[in-house]
Amino acid sequence: MPRPSTSVLYSGPFLLLIALAVYLPPIFQIPLIRAEAMYALIPLEMVNSGRWLLATLNGAPYLDKPPLLYWLTIAGYKIFGTSEWAARLPTLLCTLGEIWLTYLLGRRMFSLRAAWLGGFVLLSCIGFFALHLQILTDHLITLSLIASLYCLRRWQEEPRRRWALGFYLALAGGFMSKGFIGLAFPILISGLFLGFRDRASLFRLWFNPWGLVLLAGVALPWLAAMEQTYPGFLRHHILNEQILRFLGKREPPDITPFSIPGFWIFLAIWLMPWALLLPSALYRFCRESGSAEWQGGWLLLLWAGVILVFFTISSSRIEYYSLPALPPLALILGWRLDRCLDAAKDRSPVWALLGIGLLGLGILFFIPYLEQLCAANRREFLGMFQLLEPVARQATFWIPGVSLLGVAAGWRSARAAVWCYGALSLVLCYFTLQTLLLLSPHLSDKIPGEFLRRHAGPNDLAVMESIEEFEYGASLAYHSGRRILMVQRGGLPAFPYPVAPSEDYLITPRQLKELWAGSGKVYLLVDDATPLEDYLQAATQVLTIKGKRLLVNRP
Q1: What is the tens place of the pLDDT at every residue in 254-288?
Q2: 506 - beta bridge partners?
Q3: Is 495 buried (19+), middle (13-18) or exposed (0-12) by CB count in 10 A?
Q4: Fewer CB atoms near the end CB (10 Å): N or C, the chain?
Q5: Residue 204, number of CB atoms within 10 A of its CB
Q6: How far apart are CA 81 and CA 356, in angstroms?
Q7: Could you please report the per-residue DSSP string of 288-311?
Q8: Phi/psi at 172 (nearest 5 deg)?
Q9: Per-residue pLDDT for 232 more than 90?
Q10: Minimal CA–CA distance to 476: which of 493, 452, 500, 492?
Q11: Long-range contacts for 156-162 (Cβ within 8 Å, ≥24 apart)?
Q12: Where along the chain do its domains lie?
């Protein structure tokens, strides 16, 4: 058969088909975990209440984030019905959009092949894959940031109104996704990129009257409506959620940040298997970016640098906050792979493959340390990685095997090494999916939630113990289809704003004891990592799963 043409093989639609094949099946397989279920529950409560402006979580106002993700999820519910996969559809669209815009930006800067390889690196690195199987507002932030910088690049080439409006529309999307941080990143990156090279063009972009009107027309009405409905909203949203969160002084202090080394370790993990090729790629890329005839490379370097420096100095850093830095690093790696394909004796992919093979041999050794790193941030990871031993043993065989195959094939041909590298990245995505399939039932409250949906009566109470962030109760509330109560211990969980008594679902340990001894039936979900009080020691267990138990006071 004739070989496919290069234009078809390295085309954007073919790249999207690969992404769809990789990302579509898992959204039907993985249950909503605690970290993401709130983004499915809030839109559901909006639909049931008919109030699309006010976000509520478990019946109480939720004022932390803007509503764009909720509105997109509502659209999915309206079209496809309420389900977990419908809640994940906006994330799937963000995934495809991020890959597509990364490819388009790469085409403006590099060759068609380098742009395609950059998009493939992005979709196949395990961090981008694992995080895009979860619902997060950070995906909209990443998408809006790529869109704004693509419009910036087009504005630099052709300063026309449509690119300025596209830039501001992306700013508006970022703001309505996660607040002022959605404005800060593109403004800071564009200012650093154009400020020292074409300051007049920067000012024309920043102070474009049509763009400013567009941004104000989107952001100001929402801010005014929320402040009118909830006086004090602006103070909470701007001061507590933006400024004090960055400084690590947010109230309540319910976020356990990663250390700076932990944050950078996860960046390396997210970029695997391409992380081992990144140092040589950055070195060669910086050498060429320093030349006067090629200025576009600085955009990628500033983009990744601003994101990583910002969260490194922040006191509230979480492992997935490096997500917006993955697209520029992927494009730099795509550029490097493109050069490797043209250099028959380039050994960089070979040495990187050899390093990955050696790391693959030590997977069983690294898993306990990874568990400690994750459990220090979220308690539900304690003991979970014991479940991964069967998958880890398979990975210990396959990862070194494919890596050594690439080393053998790539020693004579850099092209063979690159193709083996790509195959290895898909193998890692497969094992990442198997890991998530094992862990997600235990990081989710779907099993106890569905038990309550089947067995609990309309007047029975569902209570959740051992939880530090009230957002993590959304998984049980979503899957059980009922409002739940949460026990507050040591001041956590706590609302960062006043809540009406009728909307407050936090109870004290004393209230739990009174409910437990009362005439009504109470179901209590407890965490194995937390010791039970004396009166609960002999309680009937109606459900036991890894890491948690469901108790009842009246069997």
Answers
A1: 677 778 888 898 899 999 999 999 999 998 888 87
A2: 486
A3: middle
A4: N
A5: 14
A6: 43
A7: HHTSTT--THHHHHHHHHHHHHHH
A8: -65, -40
A9: no
A10: 452
A11: 156/194, 156/198, 156/201, 157/108, 159/201, 159/204, 159/205, 161/208, 161/210
A12: 446-552
Mean pLDDT of 389-393: 82
332-357: per-residue pLDDT in tens?
999 999 988 887 677 888 888 888 88
For residue 486, the surrounding DSSP H or E stretch is strand 485-487
CB 193 within 8 A of CB 153: no
Q: Coil, helix or strand for 15?
A: helix
Q: What is the rounded distance in angstroms from the CA atom of residue 170 to the CA atom of residue 151?
A: 9
Residue 170 token pair: 């992306």
- Note the pLDDT of residue 455: 93
> Residue holding tokens 């319910």?
254
What's the mean pLDDT in 463-473?
87
How many angstroms separate the CA atoms of 503 and 59, rounded?
Answer: 6
Question: pLDDT at residue 291 above 60?
Answer: no
Asked if pLDDT for residue 430 goes beyond 60, the answer is yes
- Residue 5 — pLDDT band, cuts 50, 70, 90? very low
Please choose, from the candidates 32, 88, 26, the residue with its C-alpha nearest in 3D space to the C-alpha of residue 432.
Answer: 26
pLDDT of amino acid 1: 36
Q: Is 299 left (phi over 0), alpha (psi -120 to 50) or beta?
A: alpha
Longest dimension (CA), the chain: 79
> For residues 540 and 196, what is the distance between their CA atoms, to the nearest angstrom?
69
User: Nearest-CA neighbor of 185 among 104, 300, 297, 303?
Assistant: 303
Tell me: pLDDT of 402 over 90.
no
Residues 161-183, mean pLDDT to the nearest whole number: 92
Neighbouring CB atoms inside 10 A of 39's CB total 26
DSSP, collapsed to helix, strand or coil, labels residue 323 as helix
Q: What is the mean pLDDT of residues 321-335?
A: 94
- Distance, CA of 119 to CA of 313 (rounded, Å): 29
| Rounded distance between C-alpha atoms, residue 541 and residue 539, angstroms | 6
Name the one residue in this structure whose structure tokens are 């020292």. Answer: 196
What is the residue-averaged pLDDT of the chain? 87
CA distance 288 to 295: 9
Give the chain's radius of gyration (CA, Å): 25
From residue 96, give the alpha-carbon distance in Å to each of 103, 385, 465.
11, 30, 38
- For residues 108 and 154, the answer to whether their CB atoms sit within 8 Å is yes
CA distance 519 to 344: 78
